[in-house]
Amino acid sequence: MGLGAAAPGAPRRAGHDEGHAPAGGAARRGLHLLRRPLRPRRALEGRALPRGRAAPRPAGGAPAAERPARPCDQGGRLSPVDTSARTRSAVTLAVLAVLFVIGTVWAWSSVTEPFPEAEEQPACLDSPVAAGDRITPGNVVVNVLNASNTDGLAGETMDALVRKGFAEGSRGNTAAETSESGAVIWTEDPDGPAAALLKSYLGPGTQIIEQATAEPGITVVVGEGFPGIKDGKKGVEAKTDTTVCSPPTL
Q1: What Gene3D superfamilies does UniProt report for this protein, alphabetically (predicted)?
Q2: Domains of the chain, each with CATH number or no CATH
């Protein structure tokens, strides 16, 4: 009953039933490389590499030299060389700070400084005139004062003189008396060419009085009965060397 006993065979070692089955075939190709030591590679310098790549070149220069350590005293403090370097840096920073402050103050003063006001030009300047020189109305500055009871007479007379070519001076009122012609000329040079030229526009009966005035130039006082400005001379020659208060040239 039951199966027959196994056929006798070669004797087996003890514990053979716990062993592993033997390998079924030879090891795969290439795995033996993992068991062998790798051969050292030769230098690649100068040898051709696959895929047309350039061979590596040798080092182009000597390695950088190491700098010596910064000298310190036994207490770990900086050497005199480091102390002087720090001193120079501090002095440089201080100088730069001073220059910055000076530049800032100068820029602020330049920005806040008011624009210079234009200098007021005088109404006329004494210009030298030699004997024989010709004086025209444009060389003479005239002021007009109203001595009459007619309002605006000084302005009307000034406008008429300006149209004739005279340079405009000041205008105003006065209580001075005039001659029968209704006009008087005040000037510091009664024999000068400026007075003679102005008189030709006022009438032959106009008096010329040597009198200084507060305003520069030659002054005309017009009063009651003044007939107005008429056509006069285009110019007058100076008989002697003199001066004429003429408008400043710009």
Answers
A1: 3.30.70.2390
A2: 140-226+236-246 (3.30.70)
> By 3-state DSSP, what share of the chain in percent is helix, strand and coil, each rounded to 5?
25, 15, 55
Q: How far apart are CA 44 and CA 177, in angstroms?
A: 126
CA distance 196 to 233: 9
Diameter of the chain by CA atoms?
Answer: 188
Query: Could you report the per-residue pLDDT of 84-94, keeping only the tens digit for each?
Result: 777 778 888 88
Q: List own/partner pairs for 114-123 with CB under 8 A and 24 or more apart.
A: 121/248, 121/250, 122/216, 122/248, 123/169, 123/170, 123/215, 123/216, 123/217, 123/245, 123/247
How many Cβ atoms from other residues are within 10 Å of residue 136's Cβ?
14
- pLDDT for 96-135, tens place per residue? 888 888 888 878 777 776 666 666 777 788 899 999 999 9
Residue 141 confidence class, pLDDT cut points 50, 70, 90: very high
Query: 242 and 129 in contact (C-beta within 8 Å)?
Result: yes
HSE-CB for 73 with a 13 A CA cutoff: 8
Which two three-digit tokens encode residue 159? 């406008």
